[in-house]
# Entry
Amino acid sequence: LMARMGFLYETVGEEFSIQPIRMADPDASVLHMMIMDFWKLNKEINRRHSQLEQIVAATFPELKSFFVDGTARRASRAILERYPTPKELAQASVKDITAILRAKRAHHHGNRAAELLALAKESAGVPMLLHHQWRQDWLIRQLSFLEQARQELREQIERVVSTHPYKAILDSLPVRSPIWASGLIAVIGDIHRFQNYGEFKAY
# Structure
């Protein structure tokens, strides 16, 4: 088959032109793998956010009115980790609730700790079953682990691309982020594998 293609190339011309294969650079392949792992981590974190919010919506629906940006964020998780149910939270002091929230840098929420305590005392949530509490605790632990892994991977990616020749160009663009730039670098790979601008644009 290769001999036949060579014969046609020499005899017929460009219609049967043969282009050399450019193998992927090993460093580019590793960066691409890192970016894919980062996206997968994001997907897993979002899934667990949704799962935790579903539990809280049933067991402590009023929490959403206090943490309007989501009940699976770090500050709200810190409250749920220390006080898994509204009944347990209702027994806490304003001082303790404030300390937990401020430790997570949720100072605005910490100033409204009394409101959260009042919501817990009047909660209309369904009683939490043992499995619900186990699942809630498990999701909180998973989210902490996954978010830590994502942060570590982000730092690795930023170190890898810090000296990449494309980084200065991408940093000059008005809309960018470190992960966006790294993802683009990983997808492009070696720019010289494209024969012209049209190929690059199509890719």
Observations:
- The chain has a mean pLDDT of 89.
- Residues 73 and 118 are 21 Å apart (CA to CA).
- The first helix runs from residue 2 to 12.
- The chain has twelve helices and no strands.
